[in-house]
Design goal:
Elements: H1 3-28, E1 33-39, E2 42-43, E3 48-58, E4 61-65, E5 74-79, E6 83-86, E7 92-103, E8 107-110, E9 114-120, E10 125-130, E11 134-137, H2 168-190, H3 199-203, H4 206-218, H5 226-248, H6 257-267, H7 271-288, H8 296-312, H9 318-327
Parallel strand pairs: 2-11
Antiparallel strand pairs: 1-3, 3-7, 4-9, 5-7, 6-7, 8-11, 9-10
Length: 328
């Protein structure tokens, strides 16, 4: 037999061995069932959602599940400890893994695949990729909703004494503070130096009304050319910055988007709201300064996000607005 024929025969034998080995490995993959569920399936921006991976397997398998693959606009908030329960007859077991997620983009989002790894007692191992369900993120503001929602009532602490049960010392101290505040206000008025108070502290939610009115006027804008897009996004940016400035008491209109992000934490803006606002302002900057022209559907989506920023930044109580006015 020639050297060339011998090499060819060896190659055929190796190929057959590889095919047989891969087939045997595929047959040796252990059976297990994987279920992926979301609770809830529909959520709002920043709301915590539980992704639960349940693996039903034989007791001779060691199962491990990876964290969900990182997806843009979805953040892994927490990972709960793994739980394993065994059947009464010890013939099978169920492993449960829970991941807490939060989304920062409207629409239907894929929450990221997970990988299930298995290891047998004989040392054989493998893995399988599981596709997680779709998460639907819905806006807080319903389409066509132009009315402000009523403010939530202040929480009542159980066991707190009623107002008529307070001690005379506390009532006297409160009256003293009220008298001092009235005297300061009277003195400022006589001197012609009335302390500036945000409009929201006097009229309830006038800053929000003002911002929403600006956005309502933009809803009918015809985006027919680049100049129209530039005007549209410039108005969204100015309206959002003006509202944040009035709401949190710092000059948001004089800061760049990067400076605004650094200033947000000091101003007390929540992480979820600020992440949404920064993403919107960056897209506005791209449209105004880089003259980026998105499609009309994206522009309409960004207008909805602007409403969301205003809605999520609303004070929970009117007392919070008055507190900001006194603090300034």
């Amino acid at each position: 037999m020639s050297r060339r024929a011998a090499v060819a025969l060896l190659a055929i034998v190796l190929a057959l061995a590889a095919i047989w080995t891969s087939g045997a490995s595929a047959q040796e993959a252990p059976p297990f069932e994987v279920t992926a569920t979301l609770q809830p399936r529909a959520a709002t921006l920043g709301e915590h959602v539980q992704l639960t991976i349940t693996v039903r397997h034989a007791v001779d398998l060691l199962i491990t599940v990876s964290e969900p693959a990182r997806v843009s606009d979805i953040e892994l908030v927490a990972v709960e400890p793994e739980t394993v329960t065994f059947d009464d007859d010890r013939a099978g077991a169920t492993a449960t893994y829970v991941f807490v997620l939060a989304a920062f983009q409207l629409g239907d989002l894929h929450t990221g695949d997970v990988e299930v790894f298995w290891l047998r007692a004989d040392g054989s191992a493998g893995s399988s990729v599981v596709r997680s369900p779709i998460l639907s993120i819905t806006p807080v503001r319903a389409e066509g909703d132009e009315e402000l929602r009523p403010l939530k009532a202040q929480a009542v602490v159980g066991g707190a004494p009623a107002w008529w049960q307070r001690t005379e010392l506390s009532l006297g101290f409160a009256l003293l503070l009220a008298s001092v505040a009235a005297g300061i206000w009277w003195w400022c008025r006589r001197a012609g130096r009335i302390v500036a108070t945000p409009a929201s502290a006097v009229t309830g939610a006038s800053s929000e009304d003002h911002a929403r009115a600006h956005l309502d006027r933009l809803s009918g804008t015809a985006l027919v050319d680049r100049d129209a897009y530039q005007h549209f996004y410039a108005e969204i940016s100015l309206t959002t910055r003006a509202y944040l400035a009035d709401r949190y008491g710092f000059n948001a209109t004089a800061l760049t988007t990067t400076e605004l992000e650094r200033r947000a934490e000091q101003a007390g803006i929540g992480r979820w709201q600020m992440r949404l606002a920064i993403g919107l302002l960056e897209r506005c900057d791209a449209a105004v300064y880089a003259r980026s022209q998105p499609d009309p559907a994206s522009a309409d989506h960004d207008l909805t996000v602007a409403y969301e920023v205003i809605e999520l930044s609303r004070p929970r109580y009117r007392g919070e607005q008055l507190g900001e006015a006194v603090g300034e």
